[in-house]
Amino acid sequence: MHREGAIRFGGLRGRGGALLLGARRSRRFNVESAEALDSLTPPAVRTLKRRKRRAPSGCRIDARGRKHFFRQALGLVSTAVAPRTRQRPTAPALPAPTATAVARLGAAPARRTITALVPALLEWFAASARAMPWRQTHDPYAVWVSEIMLQQTQVKTVIPYWERWMRDLPDVAALAGAPAAKVLKLWEGLGYYSRARNLHAAAQLIVEKFGGRFPHAFPEILELPGIGRYTAGAIASIAYNQPAPILDGNVMRVLTRVFGIDGDPRGKATNQQLWALATHLVEHAARTPDSAKTRACSQLNQSLMELGALVCTPRQPACPVCPARKSCIAHRDQRTHELPALAPRAATTARRFVAFVITRAGRHLVQQRPSGGVNAGLWEFPNLELAAAAALTDRVVLATGRVVRPTTRLGSLTHSITRYRITVEIYRAELWEDPPQPHEHWVSASELEELALTSAHRKIVARMR
Ligand code: SF4
Hints:
Elements: E1 20-23, E2 28-31, H1 34-38, H2 42-54, E3 58-61, E4 67-70, E5 80-81, H3 99-105, H4 107-128, H5 140-150, H6 155-168, H7 172-177, H8 180-187, H9 194-210, H10 218-222, H11 229-240, H12 249-258, H13 268-286, H14 291-294, H15 296-310, H16 329-332, E6 349-357, E7 359-360, E8 363-368, E9 379-380, E10 383-386, E11 396-397, E12 403-417, E13 420-431, E14 440-443, H17 445-450, H18 455-464
Parallel strand pairs: 6-13
Antiparallel strand pairs: 1-2, 3-4, 4-5, 6-10, 7-8, 8-9, 8-14, 11-12, 12-13
The structure holds iron/sulfur cluster.
Iron/sulfur cluster is lined by residues 254, 257-258, 311-312, 317-319, 322, 324-325, 328, 330-331, 336.
């Protein structure tokens, strides 16, 4: 007997959930999750490896007494061989922790959908995947950098950034040892700079804690700064082919439509249901024949992302050419425009800033944003926020205490960050007084190019050329 909350193998116990079943005498074993392997204590792993050599194939007996054989184990696991059973083959048993999602949808239809969807997606992705430079490698560092860059940013924007980053900082050690200014400069223009700072901090942690080798275990990946459940799943599945689920906006859209799920996908209950379905799908991929060889978990997760990006788009999904159309409830019921049922987002807020270009002897005055705040460490022209209807006076006191006098209006630009719609009015200006200020520098035009500026202020530099 096994019980949840323990790992057993022929009497062995490790950390984690109920993941291994064992029968010492028959030398059979079952590994239900790669995470289980990662959670094993080193002595347990050594013992398992010894036994694995004596018992080259594993066997799992499910609740109905059917046997499921596995050829590989110990991260080594994921290739499932067709069940050796005299009973008519049926859908594989679903892992207990996630069975509720399927129960909610109706177990049999959901299993049928999962069984049909996985091979259809794998076949479609093999034929239709876009070429992307990070898809040429399984290096977890390269996958990690690409996944962080792709958050909130389109593929075509990310490609040159990723290529430049990998050229300048090709591995964890290079990133960990790079100065913060270089990391921010390489990120300049991608926005959401906390992502770059987290990459830097995580690389330093990997060097310190894992000797520079990117961790393999899902919980260890998840602990790194800036890595949430989605990114950890993407790295674990794409780099290591582990059956770890992913759920981003694209995948949410695909799953809510295919399974006809009505709730708000960002609401807690529906979100959990979607994570569970994503888990079932990738675990089903792990059980397909030759899944290790074909990297089925990696391919399945990427196919979901790709389908959401290319075919199952928000406004005009291309259902006639979709590999999921035969299983898709939204397509069948003509409800693609209703799903996903996203709750309305908070309305955007307009904000107005004035930036001052102050030049003296060919050098421009710039200031560095303080640590701990938005865009910390980046550079910008002196500026201040004004109320929408406020008039600009001829003597402006900045937040730093610096007093400036606007002279000529150079124009304006707009910029969006999260829910803020920002307008920046640009003025040439002079200093009213000239006491030295911390965080300020006078820089030449070429030095300005070398600094990491906030996105809006990089646009100001482009206007000055
Ligand atoms: S059939 Fe249409 S709605 Fe359904 S997954 Fe495909 S593109 Fe999306």
